[in-house]
Amino acid sequence: MRIRKLIAATAVAGGALTAGLATAAPASAAIDFDCATGEVCLYYNSSSYGYGAVYVQYDKVPDYAGKYFSSGRNGSSGAGVEVKNHAAAVDSWISSNFRVYYNRGYSCSVACQTIPSYGTVDLNSSLKNNNASGQNV
Amino acid sequence: MIRGCGHLLAPPARESGPESELHSEESEEATIVSRAMRRFSALLVCVPLLLAGCSDGDSSSAESKGNPKAPPAVAETPKITNANDKSMPLDTYLLNPEQSESINNAYAGILTDCMKRFGFDYTPPEAEATASSGDAPTTRTDGRFGRQNAEDAEKWGYHAAGGVEDDSPWGNKGQKMTAAMQTAERGSDDPKQKFGPGGQVINGAKVPDHGCVGEGRKKLTGSVNGNTGDAKLANDLKFDTLTKAQQDKRTRAVFAKWSTCMKDKGFDYTDPLAALGDEEWAKTPQPTQHEIQVATADQECRAKDNVVGVWFAVDYAYQEQAVEQNAEALAGVKKDIDAMLKSAAAAQAG
To answer: Distance between CA atoms of B130 and B126, rounded to whole angstroms?
Structure first.
């Protein structure tokens, strides 16, 4: 089933490609905010794919293992999936920077991405499947 | 060329995972099937490449001639165990810790002053003191090569130096944000909306567009929608080069030597990133004896085969290539950083 879906997706993508490159990239969907002031929301999907399930963070999280996405205002895609190594976008509602780390324990000894105050940002694709911890900085 | 083989070499915990564009609809089971299929087909492509990568020794030079996609040639490979004191080509286009701090301080100051105009005592969350991070570079935020300090390894294993890994609140947790405060902060009467055009009058003062957050952004970047952080291009390039350097066959060759060295010491890891990311380390708040043994062996094996030297040289070459290929856009990024730092200094002085 999954394979059929993939093939279908490939066919669609191929069709879009032949139809014209300009329309191949999906438009960024506007976010329906799950967060309130003082919170940071992590999403399973990137902006291009409608954000999906959400994990709301109120505190620093030294390890996203054991934390899970839930259905929210942007749908249920990814609900139940562990946040660690699966976050694709961040919507910040705090008035300081927020940082997502490649490694647990707020370690930027490899890499991290900083999300400016009140920013809505897709995580870089390299970090997207490697997010391990997050805190304000 | 070896790009795409990384997930074969990396441990499961770090594998690149489902292609995020499609993963939204995957069931667990289907994911496993498709992963296995992808792995298998990737194996067919990658195995000969890996073998070639292992057997052809140092073939790094002249590869990139005439092909912008080819791995860049490495000029020289320093013999080092720590690259934290060495600047890298992309450092100029990303905020370093000191620059980040001055921008953060300026932003927090503007917000606090702005909120005071409306009669609110407001404290933005305080930034975590960076002192606990141990040995780290100063010209960039990212270490890129993991722990590179033998003393830190002996003391902290793979845990953060200083042992600060708490899940404490942001720092202004006690702060209650009333509806009026939120209007002043972001310019909207609806607390569910992030921003609004302002214009409300609170305490005799008029709320600016996007509220005090907008005021902070505007003062620092010239626009209420301005980005006070790293430019997207620079951020993308930093991760792109990071991945390329990790997957480059010259790096993989030295990782293979490292892995053999670790095996001789009784530890089974594909590469230093796998050792660093071992889930085992997450189980205790402080490093265990075993963790310290692995981290210490890691440092010894890094030193033995000049792992950091090779890794750094390859990474440097990719960064140099990225800077050359994006020279014009990056010049704009640098200009924006300089302007923002100037504005931050002015705001702090004012």
So the answer is: 12
Residue B13 sits at the chain A interface (C-beta within 8 Å)? yes
Whether residue B242 and residue A109 make contact (CB cut-off 8 A), yes or no, is: no
Residue B205 lies in a domain: yes
A82 neighbourhood in chain B, CB within 8 Å: none
Query: What confidence tens digit (pLDDT) does each residue in B238-260 have?
Result: 999 999 999 999 999 999 999 99
B220 and B266 together in one domain: no
Taking the CA of residue B100 and the nearest CA in chain A, the distance in Å comes to: 9
Q: Does B235 touch chain A (CB under 8 A)?
A: yes
Are B262 and B307 within one domain? yes
Question: Residue B143 and residue A52: Cβ atoms within 8 Å?
Answer: no
Do B200 and B255 sit in the same domain of this protein?
no
Task: In whole angstroms, give the CA distance from residue A47 to residue A41.
Answer: 13
Structural domain ending residue among the three candidates B207, B229, B251: B229
pLDDT digits (tens, 9 = 90+) for A39-87: 999 999 999 999 999 999 988 898 899 999 999 999 999 999 999 999 9
Q: Residue A105's pLDDT is what?
A: 83
Q: Is residue B341 part of a domain?
A: no
**Are B167 and A59 a contacting pair at CB < 8 A?**
yes
Cβ distance A112 to B282 less than 8 Å, yes or no, reads: no
Hey, CA dihedral for B267, B308, B140, B149, is it positive or negative?
positive
Position B344 in a domain: no
**Alpha carbons B101 and A88: distance in angstroms, whole number:** 26
- What lies within 8 Å, CB to CB, of B179 at 6+ separation is B189, B191
- Greatest distance between any 2 Cα atoms in chain A: 47
CATH 2.60.20.10 is right for the domain spanning A25-136:
yes
Nearest C-alpha neighbor of B274 from the set B301, B250, B241: B301
What's this model's pTM, rounded to 2 decimal places?
0.80
The one-letter amino acid code at B251 reads T
Contact A2 B27 (CB under 8 A): yes
Which domain range does residue B271 map to?
A: 6-91+233-327
Are B281 and A104 a contacting pair at CB < 8 A? yes
B221 interfaces chain A, CB cutoff of 8 Å:
no
Q: Domain check: are B275 and B308 in the same one?
A: yes
Q: Are residues B112 and B221 in the same domain?
A: yes
Question: Would residue B335 count as lying in a domain?
Answer: no
ipTM: 0.80
How many domains does one find in chain B?
A: 2
